[in-house]
Structure formats: structure tokens, C-alpha cells
Amino acid sequence: MTRVAGAAPTTTAPVWPVAGAVAGLLSVVLGLAGGLLETMLSGPWPAAGDASYGPFLAENRTPVLAQSMLFVAGQAALIWFLGYVRARLLRAEGDPGVLSAVAFGAGLTAAAFNIAGQGVQIVLTLPSTTALDPGVLAALMNLCVVTIALANAPLALMFAAVAALSVGRGAYPAWLGWIAAAATLAAMLSTVSLVPTEGPLSPLGPLTTALRLVPVLWYLPAAVVMLREHRP
């Protein structure tokens, strides 16, 4: 740090871009931590309308609530990160910055859908829900699943814009652009998961679960690239 008489201190590296990159890393850590809490449940989620739905939620209130709160915090950190992603995309694209705006707006929309979906899951942890019919509880959980799945539609648009500006304009290294292109396809498939009622690509199928991890393959290295560029 250097100081000039009568002037405010200055640093050798900008603080806010570093904070933006750290927010991206934090969003990944919080998201993975939330996913790991699934292993703390007493068992798999009951089938829709199963009489054990209420007792299952009562028994697993703590891990379910903690999972949702971690996911919400992760999405909040992601919104902060996306602000710096937009600035980087805009520098590469130039005015009027249409694709940069699409990426930022779509990313915010996806985060909003994810937070709304977790809001529904948090409702399931409230004591008042213990008096609800198992079918109503299952319907609420289905609403959570559908809301989170629909978040993948704007997410696909975000990654498509990032891929175009990375491969075509060098906003990020080309290899990150191609990862963004893969994340676009993964998000599109995740949206389609609402169609099958069973199988690996159903809403809770193993393939759908794996596809949710693909965006991490872009968020993590993108944040590291941004962090290394602004380190002291």
C-alpha cells in the first residue's frame, strides 16, 4: 500500500473485482455444501402422497432447512459474482452490450427462480405444515422441483451469451467459452427433465442430478481466472 500526503490510501490491486471473484468461489462452496446435506437425510424422499411424508419432514427438518439456506446464500453470492462477469463481458463486447445484458439478466432470473424454489422447500420445514395432508406436502415439493428446473431455461441463455463472447470476443479464455457452451447444453437438458416422469432424466433422476453440477465446471475456473488477474 502507498500513501500520498493529503490523499486517501491506494492499493496495488483493486479490491472489488477480487471480492467479485471470491463471491463466485463462495457460491460454489455453498452450493456443494448444500448438496452434501442430502446425505444427512434419514432416507430417500417419500413418493408423492405417501403417508410418511409428514413424519419424514419432521424428522429431517434441520438438514432440509440448512440445505435450503445454504443454497439461498450461494445464489446471493452468485448474483454478486454475476455483476463482475457482466462488466468483463461488456468490456469485450463494447457498446451497446446486448449479449452482456442478456447474460446478466438471464443469470439474475435463474438465481431468482432458484431462490424461489428454495423458498417453497423452506415452507415444508415450518411447523404448521405438519397438519397438512401428505398429498399437499408432495405437491409443494413438486412445486419446488419444477421451479428449480425452470431456472435452467434462463441459465442456458446466460451460458450461451458467455460462450459467444468468450469464443468470439475473448471475454474469457476460449477453453472457458467451450465449457460455457457445454453448460448451455446441460441447462437445456435439465429443463427438458420436466417431461419424463421416471428414468435418469426425470426431475429427480441421476442424470438430472449430475447435470446440475455442470455449471460449477464454469463458475469455479472463471472465478479463479478473475482472481488471478487481480491478485496483488
Order of helices and strands: HHHHHHHHH
Structural class: mainly alpha
The separation of the N and C termini measures 10 Å
> Averaging pLDDT over every residue, what do you get?
89
SSE diagram, text form:
Layout (H helix, E strand, L loop, with lengths): L14 H22 L16 H7 L1 H33 L4 H27 L9 H17 L1 H18 L4 H19 L13 H6 L4 H14 L3
Helix pairs in contact: 1-3, 1-9, 3-4, 4-5, 4-6, 6-7, 7-9
Keywords:
232 residues; mainly alpha; 70% helix; elongated; disordered N terminus; 9 helices
How does this model look, in words?
This protein is mainly α. It has nine helices and no strands. Helix 4 runs antiparallel to helix 6. It is elongated and about 55 Å long.
